[in-house]
Write the structure tokens for this entry.
Amino acid sequence: MDGRIAGKTVTAADVAKAAGVSRSMVSRAFRETAYVAADQREKILRTAKDLGYSPNVLAQALISGKTPFVGVVTSGLANPIHAELYGALVQEMQARSLVPLSFQMNSGDGEVAGLRTAIETIKRFEVRQIVLTSFAVSDRVLDACLDTGLRVHLLNRADDAGRTGAVCADVAQGGVLAARHVLEQGRTRIAILDGAPGAWTARQRRAGYEQGLSNAGHSAVAVLPGDYSERCGFLAAEDIARMQPRPDAVLCANDLSACGMITGLHAQGMRVPDDIAVVGFDDIPQAAWSSFDLTTVSLPVQPMVSQLCERVEDDAPPEIDPVTLLPCALKRRGSG
Amino acid sequence: MDGRIAGKTVTAADVAKAAGVSRSMVSRAFRETAYVAADQREKILRTAKDLGYSPNVLAQALISGKTPFVGVVTSGLANPIHAELYGALVQEMQARSLVPLSFQMNSGDGEVAGLRTAIETIKRFEVRQIVLTSFAVSDRVLDACLDTGLRVHLLNRADDAGRTGAVCADVAQGGVLAARHVLEQGRTRIAILDGAPGAWTARQRRAGYEQGLSNAGHSAVAVLPGDYSERCGFLAAEDIARMQPRPDAVLCANDLSACGMITGLHAQGMRVPDDIAVVGFDDIPQAAWSSFDLTTVSLPVQPMVSQLCERVEDDAPPEIDPVTLLPCALKRRGSG
DNA sequence: CTGAAAGCGCTTACAG
DNA sequence: CTGAAAGCGCTTACAG
């Protein structure tokens, strides 16, 4: 029952002997499609179970040339949305018998060195596909992954140069939703707090906000620079408070900065949502905290990860993977 | 340079041919300890590099019986401290050429089923060690891991029955620090907000708080039930506000519940820290947010993960792994 | 110090 | 439908 016979791992040969068949038969019994007499298969599978046998994946991969491994490189798990996406991805892979080889690429000093060893490792494991998630994985990392010649998938971001496939939340569409929402509340002086410079998601979100505004003949009274951090939101609130006339709504690039914005606005003596509406993006757990009660745009996390795994599992992938955009939804809470 | 020759992977045989030596020599050149003439090794390594060769880990593992794989099972990455610990662990392993096989065990419906497939997978990869992290991984999961007969390490929690080794933050000591801190501020009516029922960390933290109080001849005016969530802290604040006389300090089981506590206290019209001090535990990123500015106890994350990896790498492990406790530190901020 | 040979555990044409 | 045989890419005694 425990996969061992006298201290050593039980192999297909052990099962074969016990079941009175050849090793080939054991191998076939485990492949659904292989021709094996039904009763034989049953007997083999049963004795395999009794002996606690399961095929050695390493040997399997070596001989068949197929690996279950998928490289997953992420960064900044400290950002709740990254953690959520990553966790959902790992869980989905697990359910599909895909095996994630995880790499944390926290940008900064060690990034390049870490990247080298990561790619080295990936190569040595015969990995054939890599998924990059989180906007914080730098373009340098993307370039390096593309250079490997492996199939690279992007999750929740796309490549501006269109060099590789991606499955993303349609954040531009989500931005339109948010903008329309504050407009419907009768807000008229709407500011935007931008996300991390250079990030695809940041550009798209901002574009969505602006589109939503212009659809109704409006435009932003200001676009404040930001970087997706709580801190930048807190600081930007001072700018908001100084503006004349004051904005009556702020569309923030993400929830983290929206949380900071709310705190900062309170510090400036402004009331949310009475004086000003605040909308975030991502729907992280903190958005639901009573201190923020943040209206936000949620990402289709589950659809994204299953769509991505779908691609990874596809045996006949297209020459070049497309960029798929999945719809976001508005999550109304108390902040606006 | 790209690890492929005419579309296929380059093997040791290719390098051997190119360098004019036998395959054995190529293999030896990559093992530091093996006898190889210095100039030979250099030549081999150089041509390997030119050809983009690196040993196939799968084959290596198969023949040598050593796997670089370490099972890592975690749960609830939505809890920032879990995400941090997990990220640090993965990063540390990466640096040490250990390969984490990650499993997300979100408790609930699928836990048992997920557990089965996880263990099945682990077995099939010839994994020999498992590290369990996060208090939220249930005892049922621990039992199942122990049943495999593999070496199981606990990170940031211990087993009450002492069945397996662990490396943890000394949260009891951290609790003492926190209690002493509020006492030094002259606080006298100190309440405790408890953590998740049954969790080792929760028990230890509470014990530390109580110890710290009793060291100075004090004791808690109340121990409120909690579950480590932001919500429970928010709710507990109502109880605090109703108490007569009101407590002037609350020692919370973790930062999440401390954040909720602060929000709840404000909602009750109490001022922090003027009316009441609030102390958390974990030092998650949110603790530093200006809305909370939470005084807390930080975990020795880096020492913990490197100590753990040390154990994993140890070729001559003790019969039974010890429980190592690493010291926590008080992080003073504005909440008390 | 170096090469030929055996073997890790498995899959997959190849003949029956 | 089934077995014998070759081979995936590597390491490691075993003889030189």
